[in-house]
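Contributing new complexes? Match this layout with 1-deoxymannojirimycin.
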Amino acid sequence: MQPPSRQDYVSLSLPGLESGGYNNSKQWRRQSCWRKWKQLSRLQRSLILCIVVLLFIFGLATYPTVTEHLRGLGDGEQDTDSKDIPGPTFPPLLPEPDKMAQSALPEQTSQRKLSTESRPVLHNHLQRRGNASEVVAENKAAVVKEDLEEGVTGSWHGPLVDTNQATGGAKSKEKDDSPDDQEAKLPQDSEASRLEEVRQAFRHAWNGYKQFSWGHDELRPISKTYSEWFGLGLTLIDALDTMWLLGLKEEFEEARAWVATELTFDKNVDVNLFESTIRILGGLLSTYHLTGDALFLDKAKDIGSRLMPAFNTPSKIPYSDVNIGKGIAHPPRWTSDSTLSEVTSIQLEFRELGRLTQDPQYEAAVDEVMKQIHKLDGKQDGLVPMFINTNNGQFTHQGVYTLGARADSYYEYLLKQWIQGGKKDHQLLEDYLQAIEGVKKNLLQKSSPHGLTFVGELSHGQFSPKMDHLVCFLPGTLALGAHNGLPADHMDLAKELMETCYQMYVQMETGLSPEIVHFNMHEGSTRDIEVKLADRHNLLRPETVESLFYLYRFTEDHKYQEWGWEILQNFNKYTKVPSGGYTSINNVRDPEYPSPRDKMESFFLGETLKYLYLLFSHDPDLVSLDQYVFNTEAHPLPIWPTAA
Ligand code: DMJ
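Output block (do not edit by hand):
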């Protein structure tokens, strides 16, 4: 049988539609177009095809969100500081939370009043949400509703209020005002209203967690679900002491009930030693100290003992992972190395657990790690490589030095262990002082054109002007050292670096810092800070507001509070999800479409909001820095009494 001719095919149509004008004229138009196309010469057809292809390519190239969105999906939920990336008589208890909250009145700020007056129309950027489009309509309605109900200043959609009118927020600002000017600008009631604003932010984050991820590790606020890392209610535990400090008694009680009835560590799960130590063990220990509630100490003892198998390695340098149900530890699948910061930033917690339980094994295990690292060759002027082998206890991947991911909290814990132990351990102090000299000699540079002091990286003798946002813990640590009697020039450096970290926020279009920046050093540069496409995300990290807190505590310069206030406003504007929670974002340079990553890290509640609250409080006894030392996840642990 012959195949039907084109004419045969075209004439086949369903009964009843043959004479229908609409269908027939459409068909006719199609045929006539085809005839016209056929009448063109081959050259004309090739030219038209070329133009169509070029227009298509041009369209793709000028639509960055597509590629960024795809990259965002590819990045998955990986936290870039994640240290397991493949590759080489107590101080007095604080008052009950409701008493501490009394000073802060639930007032509406002028900021809030602005929000419903000057809201521009939301438009196209909302439609560029790729595969999350189904959430658009829902969220758009929710934005307006919640805005009216709560008077919020914004959401992850982009600005809902005029930033400059509201805060001066994301406007580029090269130099800060003088402290006097700032002080003059600070309204009398701002402390109470700012503290309340942080509480509101916390409640919003907590409500999202409660609705969509209760008892799970992390909220995915856009898809209104959760992600599991260890399956241990990570956000809930990380947030416990923040709720206590913010005076959120109701929320605290519901979380406590979950810990009492639901939390079990008798589970066949692999956990990362470092992350579970700083977030879970640290969170439980600090909550025990703040509340005096033995429930938290019992839970801390349980998780602490279950983590101990990690130290059973040939070198006594711990493995990165432990199965807390089976009591078996192991390195990552791809290497027998552990990350430097991971094995050296668990000491505050295990030492405190040892003191509380009077069981020497905890402190002995973590002290051994510090002793070995103190003795190792391969450091440069006190700076340490990023990896250490669990079999032979030697540094690997030598020659690369950073204060960012994989090394950062080693430096922080040298100082903090010294402070925790009553400033007696000279070895820790020596290593810390030497490392800071090493930073000054090898990693410190100034940018062009404005001379911002920054901390770069060194790779086999080659300097790179790259700085992770993670490095912004350093101003706070340096200031803490100076407060504890270390050289005054540490405080000078702290102030310079604090300015730089602030500029990492204020020079971005959203007023939020990217994960990584590169500084220009060439004469004639027009801007100090560059951001690579792959580094434009913001994970709601705490380091800058953490340092602002220390700088404000020690200097009482209100400009640091102002800077933190701007940052909080911008978190509200670009990362707040109307239905509950905050989200990390992919692009701090696009205020129209910051591109939500659909994840709220536990440290946003554990650290970022806690440090913001402490920053806005004028009370130096609200977690006194002479009585407590914060672990690297912002959980305050007592400075040991200086027994004779
Ligand atoms: C937290 O888990 C801790 O602050 C850690 O030391 C670094 N990374 C995150 C926050 O950015």
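Reviewers usually confirm one structural detail per submission. For this one: The pocket of 1-deoxymannojirimycin is lined by residues 81, 409, 470, 541-542, 603, 607, 632-633 (CB under 6 Å).
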